[in-house]
Design a protein that fits this description.
It is a single chain. With 261 residues, the chain is an alpha+beta fold. It folds into two domains: 73 residues, Winged helix-like DNA-binding domain superfamily/Winged helix DNA-binding domain (Arc Repressor Mutant, subunit A, Orthogonal Bundle), CATH 1.10.10.10; 173 residues, GAF domain (Beta-Lactamase), CATH 3.30.450.40. The protein is 50% helix and 19% strand. The strands form two sheets. The chain has a six-stranded antiparallel sheet, sandwiched between helices. A three-stranded antiparallel sheet has the order 1-3-2. The chain is elongated, with a radius of gyration of 23 Å.
Length: 261
């Protein structure tokens, strides 16, 4: 009896989800509809249609037009769309920002995303002071030893952080963070101050600074970084570079639909 009841409840929930999605599809095609019209389209009672649009309205997925009783798609749809397309668009929307940053900072500027618990660079621009023309695009780098990786991990969901720590923090240089507790404290600092840095933690002689890029829903989906030789990009300059990257990351985020309220 219990199994039958649960099965019936699951079927009812699936039907409600299906109807809610149909409401969104109808509004996308028709522009605006009232509860009576939606009920007719769904072949349900008006009270059922009203409950559906009320639930969607709470999530900002539909919006009631004044006192006319009509509904149209809400701004929440834009956030969902931005979250879906954000990773695909981040390279395109970030290119000219990265070009400008590379020119202003004189260092190599990259955009990286997280993929399978690694940081992967998807865009790269060289600065006029760059002494290396190394191509980082497509290369997987460890999250714990890169500035972009630290930004991505600082804003990742808890299971992702736990998985990375469980796999162990490989020592790549004498400066690589390998103590889990110390690393977690650093991630908390990264999340609070809004940027991360590495000082010869991936490779000897290489330093970097990174800041977050957010999608339309405010989720951190990428990081923009500047990297250079440690004799030029020194810890004393990290704060200045971070300020430039935070501004650039905010500009790219705005292009992806994120607006801080």
């Amino acid at each position: 009896m219990g199994e039958t009841t649960r099965a019936g409840g699951d079927a009812s929930q699936v039907q409600s989800v299906d109807r809610a999605l149909l409401v969104l599809d109808l509004l996308a095609r028709r522009g605006e509809l009232g509860v009576t019209e939606l009920a007719a389209e769904l072949a349900v009672h008006k009270s059922t249609a009203f409950r559906l649009v009320t639930a969607l309205e709470r999530r900002d997925l539909v919006h009631q037009i004044g006192d006319r009783g009509k509904y149209r798609l809400g701004l929440g749809i834009l956030r969902l769309a931005a979250a879906t397309t954000g990773r695909l668009e981040v390279s395109r929307e970030g290119r000219d920002v990265c070009e400008r940053l590379a020119h202003e900072l004189g260092e190599t500027v990259n955009i990286a995303i997280m993929d399978d618990e690694s940081a992967v660079n998807v865009l790269q621009e060289y600065g006029n002071a760059s002494v290396m023309t190394r191509n980082w695009i497509g290369r997987r780098t460890p999250l714990h030893a890169t500035s972009s990786g630290k930004v991505l991990l600082a804003h990742a969901e808890e299971p992702v952080r736990k998985s990375v720590l469980a796999a162990g923090l490989e020592r790549l240089t004498d400066n690589t963070r390998t103590d889990a507790d110390q690393f977690l404290r650093e991630l908390a600092e990264v999340a609070e101050r809004g940027w991360a840095s590495t000082n010869e933690e991936l490779e000897v002689g290489l330093t970097a600074v990174a800041a977050p890029i957010r999608d339309g829903a405010g989720r951190v989906i990428a990081a923009v970084s500047a990297s250079g030789p440690s004799f030029r990009l020194t810890p004393d300059s990290f704060g200045h570079v971070a300020g430039k990257l935070i501004e650039g990351g905010a500009e790219i985020s705005a292009r992806l639909g994120f607006y801080r309220r």
